[in-house]
Write a structure and sequence with these properties.
Number of strands: 11
CATH class: Mainly Beta
Number of domains: 1
CATH architecture: Sandwich
Strand content: 35-45%
Distance between the termini: 6 Å
């Protein structure tokens, strides 16, 4: 029987708090305090936004070794508050194993005044080739998923047996 695992939030050690009293837009990349490891070459990255917005939202991916901007694109503006995925596969983005990447989500409040933008981001690194898999069906056991969480694997498939 397949179980849906929403444990990636627990793996990240995120403490949920009430944003309803916030007077301005809150943006938070869903990342661990350290660099997040992934077993997928095109993982799904998540961010949280406290309210819907029509403001432009930009996604940026930078290779840490060279500071080369690999991706700088506009995302769909969130039409509701909550967690939003950035599916790298949808944009043809493939991470190289063993390379660290910095990623950012930016809500552009005023294109003429970048210092007023709301920015949140994190670090992701694809594991070496011998640990990487391309199909989520290769990771099927719940104990494997939970053990991976314990060593910092943050972007895991959503269903396991």
């Amino acid at each position: 029987m397949k179980r849906i695992i929403y444990g990636f939030l627990a793996c990240l050690g995120i403490a949920c708090y009430d944003l309803s009293s916030a007077s301005e837009l809150e943006l938070q990349a869903i990342v661990p305090n350290h660099g997040g490891l992934t077993l997928q070459k095109s993982p799904v990255l998540y961010y949280f936004i406290s309210e819907p917005t029509t403001l432009p939202v930009r996604f940026t991916l930078i290779e840490s070794r060279t500071d080369h901007v690999l991706v700088d694109m506009l995302l769909r503006s969130p039409d509701h508050s909550g967690f939003w995925p950035v599916r790298l596969e949808d944009y043809g983005i493939v991470l190289d194993p063993g390379v660290e990447y910095r990623w950012f989500v930016t809500v552009i409040q005023n294109a003429d005044t970048p210092k007023k933008d709301i920015v949140s981001g994190g670090i992701v690194e694809c594991c070496p080739d011998d640990l990487v898999y391309d199909a989520p069906t290769l990771c099927k056991r719940a104990d494997t998923v939970l053990a991976s969480c314990g060593i910092g694997m943050t972007h895991l498939p959503a269903s396991v047996n």
